[in-house]
Structures are given as C-alpha cells and as structure tokens.
C-alpha cells in the first residue's frame, strides 16, 4: 500500500469551484481498482488550504490513476485555481496495516 498526501493552496476566490472539481475527481477515483481511499479535507483556519489523502493498493496504482480521464479533467480544470503548485508526500501506512482498515465507501 501507498499513501500520498497532496497539499494544495487554492486562490481564495476560487475555493468553491476547486472543491466542486475535486469532489468529482474523488468520487470517480474511489471507483478505480487501485484506489483504496481518496479523502478531501479542508483546513478550518484557512479554507483555501486543501489536502487530498490518497490511499493506493500498490506503487503502480498512482500512475494508473493519473492515466484516467477524470484525473486529466481535474488537473486541467484546477491548475489555474491554485495559488502555488501543489506538493505531495508519499507515505507507508503503519496503522491500520491492511487494506480493509483503509477502505472507503464510494459516495
């Protein structure tokens, strides 16, 4: 398994539009076979700060995710909405250890 945390600073006047596009991407992403979980969280102190927490079955799944139409649509839609380029950090899950503990229910 692989966990990727994507940190995004959105232009404040475009937060609603960014979240709309990001939620469409997240809903499609959790239906991918390699995606275990795809969370979107928003900073309480700074609503323009959004973090995506993506949990993948294996190291190959992020590339498969980036090859999807919904990811390309999201990437192209939100690029101009960001106040700075997004950054990401890759993690190994420690707890819960198995896929079952991380699994999302598609919404």
Automatic annotation (TrEMBL):
GO terms for MF: monooxygenase activity
Q: Where is the ABM domain?
A: 2-91
Keyword presence, Oxidoreductase: yes
Which keywords label this protein?
Monooxygenase, Oxidoreductase
- One matching Pfam family, short form? ABM
One cellular component GO annotation, for this chain's record?
cytosol
Name this protein carries in UniProt = Antibiotic biosynthesis monooxygenase
Name its species: Dactylosporangium aurantiacum
